[in-house]
Structure prediction request, 884 residues.
Amino acid sequence: MADEPTSAPEASGPLLVLEWSGYEATEYPQFFQPFADAYEGRMDEVIEYSFFAEDAEAYTKLQSGFEADVLHPCNSWWSLYVDSGLVQPIDTARLSNWDGVHPDLAAMGQFSGEQYFVPWEWGYDSIIVRNDLVTEMPTAWADLWNDAYAGHVSIWDNAETAFVMTALAQGLDPWNTTAEEQEQIKQALIELKANVLTYWADYTESYELPTTGDVWLLANAWQDAYAYIESEGYDVSYLQPEEGRLGWVCGYAISSTSNNLDLAYELLDAAIAPESMAALGNEYWYGFSNMDALPMVDEYVVDFMNLDEVDTLTDRTVFYRPLSEEQRSMMSSIWDEVKAAP
Amino acid sequence: MLRRVPWGGLYFLVLTAFLYAPILLLIVFSFNDSILLTFPLRGFTLRWYQALFEADALLGSVVNSLMVGVASSLVATVLGTMAAIGVVRFRFPGRDAFLALAGVPLVIPAIVLGVALLILFRQLVDVQLSLWTIGLGHVVINIPIAMLIVASRLIGFEDNLEEAAMDLGAGFWETQWRVTLPMSLPALLAAFLTCFTTSFDEYAMSVFLAGTDPTLPIYLYSQLRFPRRLPHVVTLTAVLMTLSIGVLFVAEWLRRSGERTSTAPEVTA
Amino acid sequence: MAPPSLWLVLLLVMPVVTMVLFTFRAGSFGQAAQQFTLNNYAAFLQNQPFQSLLARSAGVAAIVALLSVVLAYPVAYYLSFSAGSRRFTLLTLIIIPAWTSYLLRVLAWKIILGSGGVLNTVLASLGLAADLGSLFLYNRTAVIITLVYTWIPFVALPIYAALERIEPSLFEAARDLGARPWNAFLRVTLPLSLPGVIAGFLFVFIPTVGEYVTPALVGGPRGIMYGNLVQDQFLNALNWPMGSVMSLAMLLGVLLPILLFSRFVRLTELAGL
Prediction:
């Protein structure tokens, strides 16, 4: 970790981070340990946060004139950020911990040969199954449509996820569909309505629904939801579907309008420092990008996330891919029509 | 026999119970040793309350919401009252259009208002986002509400009192200030309360107008991404509710004792 | 009157104008946003499922508004006529629950209405069918119950405000003329409180058409309302033009029936304007 001189904060003011709630360095210094150490006692002077709850919200704010220094979007939005000129390329030479970042993950953050995003956290998107309530165990995404589960399925109210998951279930390539295939996906989702008890809207629901006994298959759950429910004593499993689990990754970027570069690089470097990454894994059960942190992570998390097999991660997992505006629009239209169907 | 039953009071009681049922449930869960809001209960714990006192950011957002709520409700009530007086008292050209215009924020979805105002603030006027911009947005949403409530009170108001005052030499606005408004106090308070309530829980529009200081709903909704934080929010709710009711009872007790002293019966020799 | 008018004009006109301008844009940001098009209108007019959802949502909103008014009226009446000096305290008492996060209250209702929840447990212990699981939750009924619950305090306020202006002397006069209490109510109180009732009804009806939080949480796949789709356009689809067209449709769809109604019923006269 490079020694930063403990100089006065940037003349251009504190670093403004547009961030998900739950990662703010002022309340969770452990996720940015070196930064917190360097500015201990002065954190409020050097860093400020504005929160958002959805990627779409953050993007909309930025496009409407909101200005921040550091951004934290998830990868299906990355190409949109680059194309809209919202982010500047990152000089990885300024990040002392960069070499530890797994090359497969780093590659996801590259566009037109430039590194725009520093991947930070990643995870799976799969199905939580109540083993004790289902009469037959599902083995694939396609099983969500099985009549045996009528009225006991829940999926996320999210256009992109619904589309991608259904495409996989139908054996199609979610990111290269023809108009006919899109219609097919739409019809499949309308059929699914008969099986769905409710579309879960916020993340907390994904923790609760499997415990109520009404939902036997909860789709699009992240691994930490599964881990928690299991620790509460419920008999559940986290599916490894035939088509593969879905995967997501989120990361940091520097806004194209930012002048606060020194602080920004300090923060990013601190974020991918091994001790920060280990804290992330241990506390949130999330995957992380710097594999140097592996020795500091609890065995339970390593096993469960297959963290020691990151080399095969992108083979076994279908990661969400960046979407263009048209693709996103198309998926949203389909989803809205599915929802509007009586 | 039937007449003896205080039907009004009974109905009020049942309705209040109905309104508070979810709140009581939340209070129960604030002591539950689990982050899930499901039965069966897992055991008694005070750790959420302990955590609450250390949750600076959460408490800070409550203070923000109070400030924004009180300030924007005051402004909206004043503006809404003036609009109500104008609309009910005068027949001016364009009155119907004015009425429709003032009612517009009610019809437009909060999200549309949020995006439109964000563009207004950032692209047209270049103002930084802050609690002030949120407050302005709340004023916009609340003006029609205040106007409607006060107007429904002013309609058919006892004109003769105003006429008497004006015959005695008081100007129009002076009359309003000294005669009409004091007599409309319940409506003004009702308007203020409604505006405050709307503002205190407003999310859809506020999220677009927020800078680095969140209001409670903004902070809260962003927390709901993390199920582990749900108990903090539930506990905060329990505390806020208990405090509000406590304050209310204290105020009522003070009012009653004030009443007693001021209406003390004359001592007859 | 000038300064407040100016305020209102700036802050109220701007969002409407912005929204209407959006309806003609070819996209939400950048290049596309500068192009003029009528495609959004065409897209909406051809979209029959969206239109029927709008109609259904307006229906739900009307039911919710009606139920809220009917259930809130006795409360306002009690507060105004029987509560005496305690009235304002009691009024605040029923408002206080509304200071809780809406989201949390809906979550709490899910616990009450759910299959393992309080309501079903009580009903089951009374010997009624155990399969009531899906009856009260994740459907349109759940949406209506939850919305009515949220709106009652808000509706009580304008009705209370309107009842407050009624002179007690009017009742005495009615009694002197031989009217029985129920008749006095029907022919004196109710008409005079009508502005408050109408205000209350509109308060609930208008925003409820665009409601999206409750349907998302307790409506299930069939309880979706129009507001969910509008919100989707702005947030997830990044399609502000379409979202604006849908909002405009909602605006017209809500205002036109009110205008029509007022042609026949002369609302303004009823209201005493």
About this structure: The two ends of chain C are 19 Å apart (CA to CA). The longest helix of chain C spans residues 48-82. Residues 268-273 of chain C have pLDDT under 50 and may be disordered.
